[in-house]
Design a protein that fits this description.
Layout: E1 2-6, E2 9-12, E3 15-18, E4 21-25, E5 28-33, E6 43-46, E7 51-54, E8 56-61, E9 63-64, E10 67-68, H1 74-85, E11 89-97, H2 101-115, E12 125-128, H3 148-155, E13 161-166, H4 173-182, E14 186-189, H5 196-205, E15 207-210, E16 221-223, E17 226-228, H6 231-237, E18 242-246, H7 254-264, E19 269-272, E20 291-294, E21 297-300, E22 306-308, H8 313-323, H9 328-335, H10 337-342, E23 360-363, E24 369-374, E25 377-378
Parallel strand pairs: 1-6, 2-7, 8-11, 11-12, 12-13, 13-14, 14-15, 15-18, 18-19
Antiparallel strand pairs: 1-4, 2-3, 4-5, 7-23, 9-10, 16-17, 20-21, 21-22, 23-24, 24-25
Helix pairs in contact: 5-6, 8-9
EC number: 3.5.1.25
Family: Belongs to the metallo-dependent hydrolases superfamily. NagA family.
Organism: Parabacteroides hominis
């Protein structure tokens, strides 16, 4: 069936297009045109002057809707994915936090099945750890140094893992990054104490991305009478190193979000939720849980650290625009175009262009999601427009 979305401001790679239309057919964008004249035989959707933007790409998300991907059941995956789709995440890379090999393999099996589903939003798996610095692991546990036999056996058996995060200063981390690079997998630094020399060597080895930038990594610091650059300053100095920020308005203040945007720019900055199972859900942590929800964010119960967010992708865009005063077009690009490119799926999604997947969102003037299409299929729970 042919669908035509008219009467909105369309975000294209060339900028905003007013009074144009987007034509959808068979799950793909047939055309983005500057005419909103009705096409014969098309179902017309009136965007009522709202924003028509590309669907968001969730590249760091642990769960939602009351379920965590670490549960490693199809029900958990489907529930969490559905929760985030309602908020505009039309492409999702489920994140598996620090886990033993058996659990990683189980998640791989489920992910492969979901990737094979027609018109499904899952395009790969994101693994965080277990190769993490114990001093910086925060709420994560069962961490260890990179195990070559382990990660090679996992990656030789599947193509579904598209990103893997580790601490670059650990023994064997550089070999790990080189191996990931040889497989076309994004290698990201995280939970690290690395300083400039470490980051420079890590980047050369293949660590080209910094996960949850500013979080779980030191900034400028002092040891005795001397001062040292932290991971943060080191990443800023690596011009081509990309970053992601948890732009929920809690993990980082708006001033830091503006600083990252200013120094790294749209093409090297992604917006991520780092959302836990409590996102888009009424479920709360158990009374004896290590995690509490307070001030709209997940924290360790002893208040020693943040533990993840309860944000959805639309929250990130609103935060960047309404609190950090960043142009809407740039905020959207950091939630769609840039992560799509970094995750290797920009040929399919991330921008509104002819031939790409019909992953489309309509947002109103308050930047609330009013309608979502994933692969041309309207997400019913996200539709309040018609």
């Amino acid at each position: 069936m042919l669908t035509q979305i008219i009467n909105g401001q369309i975000l294209t790679p060339q900028g905003w297009l007013k009074d144009g239309s987007v034509l959808i057919s068979d799950g793909k964008i047939l055309e983005v045109t500057n005419s909103d004249l009705a096409v014969i035989g098309a179902k017309v959707v009136d965007a009522k002057g709202m924003y028509i933007i590309p669907g968001f790409v969730a590249m760091n998300v642990h769960g939602g809707g009351g379920h965590d991907f670490k549960e490693c059941t199809e029900e958990a995956f489907h529930s969490a994915i559905a929760a985030h789709m309602k908020h505009g995440a039309t492409t999702i890379f489920p994140t598996l936090s620090s886990s033993p090999k058996e659990l990683i393999c189980k998640a791989v099996s489920i992910c492969e099945k979901l990737m094979a589903e027609k018109d499904g939003p899952v395009l790969g798996l994101h693994v965080e750890g277990p190769y993490l610095n114990a001093k910086m692991a925060g709420s994560l546990y069962d961490v260890k140094d990179p195990d070559k036999e382990e990660y090679m056996s996992i990656l030789e058996s599947t193509n579904c893992i598209k990103r893997w995060d580790a601490s670059p200063e650990l023994p064997g981390a550089h070999d790990f990054a080189r191996y990931l690079r040889s497989k076309g997998i994004l290698a990201a630094i995280t939970h690290t104490e690395a300083e400039f020399g470490d980051i420079k060597e890590a980047y050369a080895a293949g660590f080209t991305h910094a996960a949850q930038f500013y979080n779980a990594m030191p900034g400028f610091h002092k040891r005795r009478e001397y001062k040292y650059e932290g991971t943060v300053e080191s990443v800023f100095l690596m011009d081509d190193m990309t970053v992601e920020v948890i732009a929920d308005g809690k993990h980082l203040p708006s001033t830091i979000l503006r600083l990252v945007y200013k120094l790294k720019g749209v093409e090297r900055t992604c917006l991520v939720t780092d959302a836990l199972s409590y996102a888009a859900s009424d479920v709360k942590p158990a009374e004896d849980s290590r995690i509490i929800i307070e001030d709209g964010v997940c924290k360790l119960a002893d208040h020693s650290s943040l533990a993840g967010s309860i944000a959805t992708m639309d929250v990130l865009v609103r935060t960047m625009v309404q609190k950090a005063n960043i142009p809407l077009a740039d905020a959207v690009r950091m939630a769609s175009e840039t992560p799509a490119r970094l995750m290797g799926v920009s040929d399919r999604t991330g921008t509104l262009q002819r031939g790409k997947d019909a992953d489309i969102i309509i947002m109103d003037r308050n930047l609330a999601v009013r309608a979502v299409w994933s692969m041309g299929n309207l997400v019913p729970a996200a539709n309040t427009l018609f």
